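User: Sequence in, structure out. Go.
Assistant: Echoing your sequence, followed by the structure tokens.
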Amino acid sequence: MLFDQLDKAPLPDYFFGANAPRGFVNCFDQLYDPLDGHRAYILKGGPGTGKSSLMKRAAEVMLAAGQKVELVHCSSDPSSLDAVLFPDCKACIADGTAPHVMEPKYPGACERLIHLGDCWDADLLEKQHENIIAVCKQNSALHARASRYITAAGSLLDDSFGIDCECCDMDAAEAFAKRLAAAHFPKPTGKRGKESVRFLSAITPDGIVFQQQTLVSQCKTILAIEDEYGAAASIILSTLRALALESGLDIITCPCAMAPQRKTDHLIIPSLSLAFCTANRYLPVLCDTGRRIHARRFRNVELQKQRRPRLSFNRRAIYELLG
């Protein structure tokens, strides 16, 4: 079966784009570094021209050759690929079409455009122009409707997060993060680490997809912060991120798909084979972790009880909206 090797291999899987409450966000500028000798092959062409199939086949060939492979899934169709990365040879293949349009920064020197639209059967497609236009319009309308639901769910998540912040002892959470860093990170040497930004979860037509297996494939030790609403986890992870970079560690920062500008959900430190992650009903960390940290230790329980009716309403409404 084609791609069977890909399905079985324990590969790192990410999203580089997310359907967020304030619109589509992406970190496709993180795919490759032209100044570090990286090369990019940017695919152009409409849906059905074989962009994802080409990337899957290339990944399979590279795996068979013993190369490292990382897969980037499409948040609008998680079974499809937006990109495939080959870290060992500093190369990537990416879908350069909307909503994450990519154009060469250094044409020919670092990037090559591949036009799969040249493989279209134009005569056949022209005969179906009415059906194609109708389906594309319907798809756009449904996508806009889904985006409105995501926006509504995001406003309620913001409300719950704000309530949780009122109930959280931020100073205690930050002090705890500093103790964690002291226990796991080397002492700063003056060299600052590098940061890559990627998503581990996304809102998709299949629901919330969380690429939990990536944590397992990348890290021997996983510390899960169990935090339903995210205030404590957010301050812990932002503190750990800053301290890891100060310690000269290269990190992978994974923002929250529903609040990418404000919250970090996960932090991966490949050189230490270590990850810190948020665990809740949307991000069920089921793997055997090194430790589970319960956010309630940083919370004013009595104050949260007073806010419980509002939090319960928000939780039910968010579930319906995202469904």
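User: And one key feature?
Assistant: The mean pLDDT is 91.
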